[in-house]
Amino acid sequence: MQAQCFLGVDLGAESGRVLAGRLHENKIQLEEIYRFSNGPVPLAGTRRWNVTGLWSSILKGLTLAAQKYGDQIVSVGVDTWGVDYVLLSEKQEMLGQPYHYRDPRTEGMLNLATSRVPQQEIFDATGLQFMEINTLYQLLAMQQTDPELLQQARTFLMIPDFFHWLLSGSQVVEFTNATTTQCLNPLTGDWAYDLLRKLEIPTSLLPKLVSPGTKLGTLREEVMQYTGLRKIDVITPATHDTASAVAAIPTSQTGTPNWAYISSGTWSLMGVEVNSAVLGKRAFELNFTNEGGIDGTYRLLKNIMGLWLVQECKRSYERQGQTMEYSELAEAAASAEPFRSLVDPDDPRFLSPSDMLEAISQYCKESNQPVPETPGQYIRCALESLALKYRKVSGWLEELTGTPIEVIHIVGGGTKNELLNQFTANACQIPVITGPVEATGLGNVLVQARAAGAVSSLSEIRNIVLNSIETKRYEPQEKTVWEQAIQRFDSLLNNNKVKS
């Protein structure tokens, strides 16, 4: 039997890819057809996404896929990061170049929102972690600074839904990405209309919500002509990249919260899979989030700043004329003095600093710690701090679910950072299993395969991934020194009164 081919468009904060997933005999082979760059574009004092440029690159990748796999191709679907969106006018024109979530216009919007609606009430209505990058605060910022443009809007689409519209003409928002907005009610499974009205955000532009695996239609005629693809289906994967990544975690424990995951990349998203949103006072106090997953599940998780700290340190050194590969930085960190300096990765100063080295140095000065002096010291500080934050979050997850975590699965690009993986096992004192690197792409194409009837369930998706990849296991080490570091880290957070 000929392999079936499913095309996944995976857009990340730094790059995008068109991928081909070929399913045959209970195994999936993922191939990168075309890779292209992505990132914020400075535009008259703002940060924007170049979505028209991304669309051009997507079309090129689809053209190459059509040339290679032709009639084997069954469908295509898009996943991206969360929170960002596109607005369309009544005549289906894009209203402005979409904002990047790190654009500074949302500064102060969380405080504005909570001055109108109590913070607990916002959490009860959305179940989402409070971050000023959330769509809710982006819309509130637009309401404050550009109300005329917001009034012109007739359709709100998240970034992946925008590309699905370009592919098929559909105008819907897929559930998993909608849950990143802080505009959706996890109890009703629909938009949080009452909350949005209280904040005077128009709700008429919010389209219908659909589940992962929904067939949106077939390709537009113009797309077929441009790319050479036949009339294939356009199917929503789990359009939030983390939801797709979690769908591809090779666990045999689907349906239980006794395993945790870390989707490790620019952001680290750490959580457990639960059957319903976890709300209430304690989840609110700990600032946890409930994001949608496959089959109506929720990902009870926390966003952690992630390898952004390392990426920005690398960029800082490059601006100084020092070019170092990630492998060199990891090697330098491995030989640096342990636990010399620690930071809270989620301190607001690290979200969008002009210079990450300076931001880390300032944190260390303020907390009376030695300031890092070498690349190895800076990177070790970042990696040890991340691992210790994972330990904090794993403890909170156990508290919220009442279930001990027995293993942590790490997926995504961060699986290549073996030093961080071992630090994570050491800090959490439970085994860590890494892989797949391409979890998001695998989850994307396999959800499409399930929609096409080639796969029957979420458990089967994960079994196929396990059959198709190699994993690596890290056992915990150095318990005593890491326990001491945990106590020091707790004191650091308490002394700086950081709400984590």
Helix content: 40-55%
Strand order of the largest sheet: 17-18-16-15-19-20-21
Number of DSSP helices?
19
| Strand elements, count | 21
Radius of gyration, CA atoms, in whole angstroms = 22 Å
- Are there runs of 5+ residues with pLDDT below 50, and where? none
The 3D shape can be described as: globular
Largest sheet: 7 strands, mixed
Mean pLDDT: 96
Overall SS class: alpha/beta
What is the terminal separation in angstroms? 52 Å
**Oligomeric composition of the shown chains:** single chain
What percentage of amino acids are in beta strands? 15-25%
Keywords: ATP-binding, Disulfide bond, Kinase, Nucleotide-binding, Rhamnose metabolism, Transferase
Domain Carbohydrate kinase FGGY C-terminal: 260-452
InterPro entries: ATPase_NBD, Carb_kinase_FGGY, FGGY_C, FGGY_N, Rhamnulokinase
EC number: 2.7.1.5
Question: Which keywords apply here?
Answer:
six-stranded mixed sheet; 500 residues; seven-stranded mixed sheet; single chain; Rhamnulokinase; alpha/beta; EC 2.7.1.5
Can you tell me about this structure?
By secondary structure, the protein is an alpha/beta fold. 40% of the residues lie in helices and 20% in strands. It has helices at residues 51-69, 109-116, 119-126, 135-145, 147-152, 159-168, 175-178, 193-198, 221-227, 241-247, 281-285, 308-319, 326-334, 356-366, 375-401, 418-428, 439-451, 458-468, 479-495, and strands spanning 4-11, 15-24, 27-37, 41-43, 46-48, 73-79, 85-88, 155-158, 173-174, 184-185, 190-191, 209-210, 215-218, 233-235, 259-264, 268-274, 289-292, 298-304, 407-411, 432-434, 472-474. The radius of gyration is 22 Å and the shape is globular. The mean pLDDT is 96. This is Rhamnulokinase. GO terms for molecular function: rhamnulokinase activity.
